[in-house]
Amino acid sequence: MQLIDPNHPTYRPLWVRLAIVGSCFGWAIVELVAAQPFWAILAGAAGAYAAYMLLLTFNPQDPPAATGTVADDPEDDEETPVEKKQD
Description:
Structural class: mainly alpha
Radius of gyration: 25 Å
Strand content: under 5%
């Protein structure tokens, strides 16, 4: 099961991926300081998974080109000029 889609355009910039991983590990540190080891382990695991998906194995694929074409409507090709009224 894939929780993070590495092909999503949000994850293309490196600073976004680093911010996500850093915030997960940062929150794990906050939970450790607050003496909450269960939540620290969960946040650390989320950070480890995010680091694996977004930093170690990150290889985004370009979206496939659209193969279907939209039929042109001949009525749309004809433009009617707009007349301006002068007062």
